[in-house]
Amino acid sequence: MQLRPDGTGTVHVNEHASACAAASTARLRAGALARAVAVARTVGRPVRVVLADATGASLLAAHPDGTLRTLPAEGAGAPVDVPPAPCRRCGADQPVAALACGACGTLEPLRVETDPVALLDAATLSRPDEGLLASLPAPRPVPALPTVPDALPDGLPHGLRDGLSPVSVPVLPDGRSPVSVPVLPPEPAAGGAARDAADTSGGHVLVLTVDGGAPVRVPGGASLGRDPVAPTGRTPVRVVGATVSKTHALVDVEPDGTILVTDFSSTNGTHVLLDAPVRLVPHTPVAVPAGTVVLLGEVRCTLGLSA
């Protein structure tokens, strides 16, 4: 980790380098060490950290539980104190080990990388150790099979049925049923008054990609599950699978484009894939960036936005 006095720096994980920036050197240091703790948590063991700044270089050990210690030539080393630092979204102080902000729910609240950090996989870590490789999920190929038409759920409110059409995706080899998603039709050059009145996401439209299928646009928020109940303002998105609950998770889009994911007390959990999968606390909204992959049980769903 190279930290500069102007609040910029570079974090290296093996041969993968990420540019970083923060409002102060203290905030930059906290964010860089938070990344080291995240990597330690992923591999399940302490990792060696070389921290270089204007005062020189120091060798540290970052532990999965968030503790940091000096790494002398002999002995256990001394604890390193890293004061809480402001969340990148709301400014509330968070510890270096925080997975999500306790105030606003933002994941990785101390992140300082200027570009989104890629999902931790063999392409991101150029020399992953065997323990890490064993923990990586195998990619699930999606065969080119004919699509199967599916009807809209009977419980879809009449107001959402008007102007919507079902979308079908390929049948998956493990016996899952098709996914039925009510989506918006192509938008006209000028939006209608009814569309404007119903739009609460500031012009941002949620885009879902389920298990490698075609991306589909969903009006407003989404309620995901085998046969989901759709709270007011959300579109029911039927995702049928052995590990998916009846109403599994809710996805909402705020006016500024922030995506909120909420686990709906699902049986097999809703996981957000960061450097390591994070299981969401039921009924606690968590903010995630566009492009985030979530697991509904074992079904992968990528959350995106379109204007």
What's a quick, concise take on this entry?
The chain is of the alpha+beta class.
Description:
- This is FHA domain-containing protein.
- It holds the Pfam family FHA.
- It is a single chain.
- The protein has two domains: about 130 residues, no CATH class; about 150 residues, Tumour Suppressor Smad4 (Sandwich).
- With about 300 residues, it is an alpha+beta fold.
- It is elongated.
- It is built from four helices and 19 strands.
SSE layout and pairing:
Elements: E1 2-3, E2 8-13, E3 16-21, H1 25-43, E4 47-53, E5 56-62, E6 68-70, E7 85-86, E8 93-94, H2 130-135, H3 158-161, H4 193-198, E9 205-210, E10 216-218, E11 221-225, E12 234-238, E13 249-253, E14 259-263, E15 270-273, E16 277-279, E17 286-288, E18 292-296, E19 299-306
Parallel strand pairs: 11-12
Antiparallel strand pairs: 1-2, 2-3, 4-5, 5-6, 7-8, 9-10, 9-19, 11-13, 13-14, 14-17, 15-16, 15-18, 18-19
Pfam families: FHA
Protein name: FHA domain-containing protein
Domain FHA: 222-272
